[in-house]
Write a structure and sequence with these properties.
With 369 residues, the protein is α+β, with helices and mostly antiparallel strands. The protein is built from 13 helices and 14 strands.
């Protein structure tokens, strides 16, 4: 047995952190239910922890109630026996996993205060293994301005863009958008996801209201040239080296891939795998790994592209370090069609969390020696 494998305890107590303060609270709850159902109860004990929209951390019993009121049914796995978790402040107060008896944390929070490095920093301080990118990769992956800079610095293809901070000269920004990007363009908050606050603008009046809408969610906004192309997504897994799944394709039901399209009326179609020829598949997989590395991601990310078939080819849109994770979400589906079923994917992610924790502990040990 490798030293890494032996770092995996017998029955693993996995803390699912879900909900959260972002606009994607509901999405996170649906994901949490699906993940809890897929974790084999013989091997995992699930400790659910909910974060409310106003930022309160609820212990297991209240978390179960919150899950029960989500759209999906309450899974049996949430009937945790034994002690209830205390207020989550205890995680920070007691370094190491000993205090709570949690072996690994699975952050299932989308958007700010969860996917953006904040929770990851807390878990680093608490010295707990956790699934997914660390502080840096999470933060870069959440901020569309910094992410685009990282892509540009690594020579990766993307649409032309401009960014603006709240309070900057609005007319000057609009004039720059008209001069350098032209209409139609897309305006987005820098820190968000699930298409929240994203709009398409076809003239100055629409641009102005799109900026207002985006600024409601973040102090920074990004405007970018609209790309007329298909939407292709690739799932990346692992660190050393990261591996890319087969690509998938989103066929939006609305004018673009909106929040309602993603989660409510379900008109958007996800094709897994995407109909692309072999060379294109190889090309987009390689680009996905480069994008993942450019943002210093770890363990998992879904990398999203536009594909101008007869034009510029693949252009990066963004990556998500905690992608949608229900069994029908693109990330798990892409691994499924690439030969890794949902429960095995969760095992792999948990293993990666233990591996990183063990690697860091070894390095810290060497430093002290
Ligand atoms: N430059 C663009 N050209 C064409 N469509 C875009 C562009 N930017 C965003 N969109 C559309 O808006 C959706 C949401 O934008 P995205 O940048 O992915 O934000 P989010 O992080 O909220 O998912 C995309 O899936 C796509 O349908
Ligand atoms: Mg997106």
């Amino acid at each position: 047995m490798s030293p890494v494998a032996s770092a995996r305890p017998g029955r693993i107590r996995v803390m699912l952190v879900f909900g959260g303060r972002s606009a994607e609270h509901d999405v996170s709850r649906v994901t949490a239910v699906a993940v809890a159902k897929a974790l084999d109860p013989a091997r995992y004990e699930v400790v659910p922890v909910a974060i409310t929209t106003d930022g309160r951390w609820l212990h297991a019993r209240e978390a179960r109630a919150l899950l029960a009121s989500s759209r999906a049914a309450l899974p049996v796995a949430f009937e945790v026996e034994g002690e209830e978790l205390d207020e989550l402040g205890a995680v920070v107060a007691s370094p190491g996993s000993g205090g709570l008896g949690v072996d690994v944390v699975l952050p299932l929070l989308h958007g700010p205060y969860g996917e953006d490095g904040t929770l990851q920093g807390l878990l680093e301080l608490a010295d707990l293994p956790y699934v997914g990118s660390g502080v840096l990769g999470s933060a870069v992956g959440m901020d569309k301005v910094m992410m685009k800079r990282a892509f540009a610095a690594c020579g990766l293809p993307q649409a032309a863009y401009l960014s603006m901070r709240d309070g900057a000269d609005r007319d000057e920004f609009c004039a720059a958008v008209e001069g350098r990007l032209a209409y139609p363009c897309f305006v987005k908050p820098a820190n968000m996801g699930s298409s929240v606050g994203v709009s398409r603008a076809a003239d100055r009046a629409e641009l102005e209201s799109a900026i207002d809408r985006a600024l409601a969610f973040d102090e920074w906004v990004v405007a970018e040239a609209a790309v007329p192309g298909r939407e292709i997504e690739v799932a990346v897994l692992g660190d050393d080296p990261p591996e890319a799944s087969l690509p998938g394709e989103i066929v939006p039901g609305a004018e673009f891939y909106t929040y309602a399209d993603k989660y409510e009326d379900g008109v958007a179609q996800g094709l897994a795998p995407a109909p692309l020829d072999e060379d294109r598949v190889a090309e987009v997989r390689a680009l996905a790994v480069r994008a993942f590395e450019a943002c210093r991601c770890e363990a998992m990310a879904r990398v999203d592209f536009f594909f101008e078939e007869h034009g510029r080819g693949f252009l990066l849109n963004e990556l998500n370090t905690i992608p949608g994770f229900t069994p029908t979400s693109m990330y798990p589906r892409l691994w499924e069609v690439s030969g890794l079923p949902y429960p095995a994917l969760l095992d792999r992610l948990v293993d990666l969390a233990f591996e990183r924790h063990a690697r860091r502990a070894r390095r810290a040990g060497r430093q002290r020696a």
